[in-house]
Amino acid sequence: MISYRDAIERLLAPLSILPSETCALADATGRVLADTVTSPLALPSFDHAAMDGYALKAGASSRGGSEHHVHGSRAAGDVGHIAGAGVCEIMTGARLPQGFDAVIAVERTEMLQARPDGTPHRIRLLDDIAHDRNVRRMGTDVPRGANVLAAGTCIEPAQVMLLAALGVGHVAVVRRPRVAIVCTGKELQTGPTASLRDGQIHNSNGPYLTAALGRAGADVVSCETVDDTVHPYLEALQRAVEAGVDLVISTGAVSMGRYDFVPAALRHFGAQVLFHKVPMRPGKPLLAARLHTGPLVLALPGTPMAVAVGARFFVAPVLRAMCGQGSEPTLRAVLASAQHPKPGLRHFLRATLWLDDRGQLQARPVDQQEPFRIQPFANADAWIVLDEQAGDCAAGMPVEIASLELATPLRLSTGPDFSP
Ligand SMILES: Nc1nc2c(c(=O)[nH]1)N[C@H]1C(S)=C(S)[C@@H](COP(=O)(O)OP(=O)(O)OC[C@H]3O[C@@H](n4cnc5c(N)ncnc54)[C@H](O)[C@@H]3O)O[C@H]1N2
Ligand code: MOO
């Protein structure tokens, strides 16, 4: 048996980033950038008004109380020369006309005289206006040529806004990791709503993995169910290989039972077993292998929480590595109730999270941690991770937590260490 850390190292070491492809921005949400994006434009692209009001030249003649003729009017999108001395009516977003360097908001002026069509002819300023006031200068958000998004960044709506503002219509993204799922077990009823015969259960691992991997940006090319015999399993593996997958995830038949044929079947298939069994709870009998044709195989134990742990703590790092993303930042919270984990095992505990009245994030393991229980998983907010050396953990100590989602929904920057 090798430790979780060693297992992850063995799993990730030979992985390389998947090839890139071009993707329209409209389809890029959830994709991972293959290259750094440099800005083809400055943002703002020109000096413009931040308020509806009047553009003027700040200085001695534009103090509060001064009176001015209004020459011309500019709305966002208007261009052209503004002639004459004085001020120019301007709307938010309009390019600042040549020769002007400040804007006074319309409500900080008084209209002294209107033209017959109602437009302002002469105004008085109510405030002193300094140079640059209410002006957004070109390039102050993004200078042209700046690195705006790093390779490995997942494109979320905020990145779509930035790229759209820069006029970037297509981006180079990492090809989605292609994954095949194979659920083993003759007890599995595959029709999701079909009635169960005696001894049968609904397949919950397949739909869970399909949902979780899809959310994490993988392309789930198939999800098959096979019985507890070698040949259908190997045939499913062969189909996955032919479909050109990067990763096969199987569930079940990987432990000590008479019908736990997966380890032998993989060896028979010529797979190189990277490790089998990791000292952790749940999910200990997990096996990882590499097929001679290239794809990785993660054979997860069939128990639902062993599948959830395998997906979150083995599959997710593999997907990140395939997409050129570094390791996840570690999140911590305050342990809300004492724990006495079994020494030598890494424990993954389903937990609820809340912010206490001092603003500290508290994490409490749910009461029922047996690996067959799905209800507490559906009610949980996060995982608590207690490493192999954790020993007895007192309430109040900081512990590592991880999101239930494979791709962490919370973005964190490197900041000061969290200490409760
Ligand atoms: N003698 C030992 N027995 C077991 C050990 C052990 O060390 N010695 N380890 C236990 C642990 S830990 C786990 S986890 C399980 C894993 O066993 P398998 O990977 O062989 O999984 P199965 O026996 O096929 O299934 C386990 C359990 O999960 C249910 N299951 C399977 N597939 C699905 C599915 N797609 N959807 C929902 N539920 C599924 C299956 O019916 C079983 O109840 O082994 C322990 N035994
Ligand atoms: O790995 Mo398990 O502990 O029965 O799910």
TrEMBL record:
Cofactor(s) required, per the database record: Mg(2+)
Pathway participation: Cofactor biosynthesis; molybdopterin biosynthesis
Domain of life, source organism: Bacteria
Residue ranges of every copy of the MoaB/Mog domain listed in the record: 180-321
E.C. code: 2.10.1.1
Gene3D superfamilies: MoaB/Mog-like domain, MoeA, C-terminal, domain IV, Molybdopterin biosynthesis moea protein, domain 2, Molybdopterin biosynthesis moea protein, domain 3
Reactions it catalyzes: adenylyl-molybdopterin + molybdate = Mo-molybdopterin + AMP + H(+)
Keyword list, A-Z: Magnesium, Metal-binding, Molybdenum, Molybdenum cofactor biosynthesis, Transferase
Role, per record: Catalyzes the insertion of molybdate into adenylated molybdopterin with the concomitant release of AMP.
Family note: Belongs to the MoeA family.
NCBIfam families per the UniProt record, alphabetical: Glp_gephyrin, molyb_syn
Protein name: Molybdopterin molybdenumtransferase
Species annotation: Rhodanobacter ginsenosidimutans
